[in-house]
Amino acid sequence: MKAVVCEEPFDLRVVDRAAPEPNEGEVLVQIQRVGLCGTDYHIFAGRHPFLAYPRVIGHELSGTVAAAAASSRFREGQLVAINPYLSCGTCIACRKGKPNACVNIQVLGVHTDGGMCELLKVPESALIDATGLTPDQAAMLEFLAVGAHAVARSKIARGERALVVGAGPIGIGTALFAKLEGAEVTLVDRREARLIFARDELGFESIITAGDDTAEVLASQTSGDMFDVVFEATGSLQSMGQSLAYVAAGGTLVFVGVAPGEVVFSDPEFHKRETTLVASRNALASDFERVMAAMKDGLVPTATLHTHSFPADETPTRLPELIDNADHVVKAIARF
User: Is the pTM of this model over 0.90?
Assistant: First the structure.
């Protein structure tokens, strides 16, 4: 079978591998769609903090069941999405109902080989029945679930002000679900093209181009109150440190992005606000369900978010092009 492997930074290639054989409790999936995201771009560029090379990339996955045990609740030909966060089920986080923070987590395409291949075996527990969605929509569940999880973690209330720092795919997904919760959403980014897309294509009227005076502009917009919840989705340590200045007194700061290194901000400012600081990692099954329900209700503009498509075997040439054209890419999907 064909698989797309990142052998080392900047070395992405299509290779032939033996087809996997599922073990007991596993299902064989014929992959149809693979969404590309910042994780894959960071792997390609050698900037992912949790990765060892070589690695088959791809964790935003949809496909059809190719083989399953007779006792399985899934049937051959059934459209499925895959929850790529494979947890151990026994560690302290799993025992607390937080498998997304599993101590021994194996994320497809990061800690273990992913789904940018023709056939993939996964535990049956990782499959999501995607009946009623298209293959493209099913492949978009994961990145939107990351945003939905961040919103759930924030406990934002209807009518509260939300600021999303970073209008990339994760930031946009977060903004969409904050808006669905009834929040008043503002997006800020240094890349004007992304903000224009968010405004013109997704209906986010409040957009701010980041600059040296970002804090002053945001203060002016909110009569000095700033934002009840700030979602930091850039994955930039500098931006993460600066984001505390945008949080209202008594507000919440949610780190959605992840970056290697240390985040530094003023402790007096942190205490003065009695800030709630929240990390948001991956997503839970309930977040996937939330996104799927919203898709089926027509509340997520998946066709608009899906900006690029190409055959999977073109990924080695297309992925660098996507990085170079990042301002105009929301969700690119490779097809098998």
Answer: yes
